[in-house]
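Journal club prep — side note

Before the paper discussion, L.F. wants everyone to see what a predicted structure for a comparable chain looks like in token form. Sequence:
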Amino acid sequence: MRGIAVTTALLLLSAGPACAAGDPAVAALQSVLQTRGLYAGVVDGVRGPQTEAAVRAAQRRAGLAVDGVVGPNTRSALRLRSLGSRQLRSGATGTDVLALQFALALHGFPSGTLDGAFGAHTDAAVRRFQRYAGLGADGVAGGATVAALRRAPPMIPIALSRPLDAPITDPFGVRGRRFHTGLDLPAPAGTGVVAAAPGRVAYAGFLAGGWGLLVTIAHAGGVRTLYAHLSRIDVRVGEAVQAGWQVGLVGATGDATGPHLHFEARVNGAAVDPVPAFR
């Protein structure tokens, strides 16, 4: 019927490094170092050799002991403010706001550009996360919200199959100063795209905002998978599908520079890296 075999070789392909893992405090540190011209790497929250060298350069510039340790004197020189040191709301700016934005993205609720400015997009992301976490959605990042953000991000509770026989060229995680909430898999236009797990079609049609032709499937465990930029949709809303059934064809509809599949997985509304769930 609609089944499309996925080759064993492609199932075993490495997806490349997922850039989602990271520490919001390190991301804020990297951002400050970057604005001072000391760090040219990605603001990914991972403290590697580039971040270490930049910290030492900042200490040297400030006339501090060059030990690479971000202690009180270094924090003061860099004007670093920790997430949770004050309540954050619309209009706030600073390194703690950037740490908040990074933490929201890691938990599946990105707010647009990681810029350290608490604007409308960050306010909306905070409220979405608060609803997800069972908190009052007041848009204020106080103690309860920060505590919830310190918990581990959600995981996908079901097994997923790869939706397309193609390597992942753009993984889940930091991309420049923004956060990519899915996987990009380039393939020739017209290539079949398959359901990643059994479920029921929740959406099938054109969606504005860059998605183009989109299929969304609801699965067990509060999981939804999204298949965007399609050139054709082969399912209808309410239809039950099995893993491996064709749901559409690769295209470049919506905001796409070339034919590829943008694939997302969400758990109760939170965007989650699908790669660890691939079987």
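L.F.'s comment for the group: Helices lie at 8-11, 24-35, 49-62, 72-78, 95-106, 120-132, 143-149. Keep this in mind when we get to the figures.
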